[in-house]
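Problem: given the chain below (248 residues), write out its structure.
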Amino acid sequence: MKKIVALIPSRSGSKRIPNKNIKILNGHPLIAYSIVSANNSGVFDEIIVSTDSEKYKEIAEHYGANVVIRPPKYAEDNSPDIEWVTYTLNDLKGRGKEYDLFSILRPTSPFRLPLTINRALNQFLKLKNVDSIRAVEVCAQHPAKMWFVKDSLMESVMAGCNSGVPWHSCQFSSLPVIYVQNASLEIAKTSNGLDKNSISGDKIAPFFTDSYEGFDLNQPYDWEYATYLIEQKLAKLPVIHTATSITK
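Solution.
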């Protein structure tokens, strides 16, 4: 059996939605849904929240996670994920906790259910010679319609043609299918991080999310839409049985 740890990043310095990761959504802090989904999936040997905040630490522990406090230098706006991932894995290793696999579950994806995690892990374990899987969905805005601006002129992001017609001038239905990563999850070999200083490794397989499993809550309007989806019963949150919620 593979030993696997869930890693939930939760730094305190979000700008677009202040304190986003602990903002209350449907009665609980946003981070609670990732913790509970990970716990209810039954696949993890340990659930770790990586944060730079003692307040976040208290909330994470309340909902059942263990916590590794990351140094402030790994919690900046431009800090790459590999920094806190390797710091956390090395911290755990230093305490005699070594894992074969890790899964990154971002708090901004509250509609990721335990069944989503189970489906992804089952898929990963069946694959041969793959370093990781990453959640993706069909992109809503196609890169063929996107542009770089250089010296006041535009240059297409996606070069090439379809029967002599530039991609940017083609109908959407005739464009090749392009996938975009979302916040739902990643599952990877721990050796990627500790030996290769990489999260995904070299060989990455897709995990196709369904419906709102990959919903990413980052902008204020995302929060309004998430609230609407919950009220209209169009999307499900993981069920939280914690008797006492933390609302402040």
